[in-house]
Every structure is written in C-alpha cells, then in structure tokens.
Amino acid sequence: MVDSDEHLLSVLETLEQCRAALCAGGRDETAQLLSVAILDLRMKLNQIGDAELKVLCEEVMRGEERDGSAARPAQRRHPRLRVVK
C-alpha cells in the first residue's frame, strides 16, 4: 500500500507540473481537465468518497450564496463541477 501511495504521489506531482505548464502556455481548458484528474487522485490518496465531496461542494455553494459572492458577475469564475456517478 505504501508503494502504491508513493507512486500516486509521484504521478500527482507530475500532473501538477503539467497543469502549471499548460496554464503558463495559455491552455486553461486543458489545465482544468488535468485538475479533475488531480482531484480524483487526491481523493483516492486521502480516502475521500464522492458523498463527502458532494457535501463539501454544497457547503461551499451555500457559503457563496450567504456571502453574495455568487452574485458578482464581473469576476471570472470557473465552471462548477458536479459529482455524477
């Protein structure tokens, strides 16, 4: 198990470097796709399930609604991801 986690951490580091290079090169959409892969690996490494992620996303959305930050159209926002399985 430890070797597997170490391997995943190595892959994660590589993906993060690739994402940074893509962002620097103006390939934001492709970098976002890598962000999804990075999130998936982090969830596996930290044993976070889909249900826990969904609860977190819902709480963040509620917090934004309370703060009024969801109503600020001038700020560029990334599209929201929904957990679908």
How would you sum up this structure in a few lines?
The chain has helices at residues 2-24, 28-45, 50-67. With 85 residues, it is mainly α.
Describe this structure in words.
The protein has 85 residues and is an all-alpha fold. It folds into two domains: 48 residues; 37 residues, no CATH class. The protein has three helices and no strands. Helix 1 runs antiparallel to helix 2. The longest helix has 23 residues. The two termini are 26 Å apart. The relative contact order is 0.10. The model has no long low-confidence stretch (mean pLDDT 84).
The biggest sheet amounts to: none
Taken together, the total number of domains comes to 2
* CA-atom Rg in angstroms: 15 Å
- Percent of residues in helical segments? 55-70%
Q: Structural class given helices, strands, pairing? A: mainly alpha
Q: Estimate what percentage of residues fall within beta strands.
A: under 5%
Categorize the overall geometry.
flat
Distance between the termini: 26 Å
| Mean of residue pLDDT values | 84
**Contiguous helical run count:** 3
Topology, number of strands:
0
* SSE order: HHH
Low-confidence stretches: none
How are the secondary structure elements laid out?
Blueprint: H1 2-24, H2 28-45, H3 50-67
Helix pairs in contact: 1-2
Q: Which descriptors would you attach to this protein?
A:
mainly alpha; 69% helix
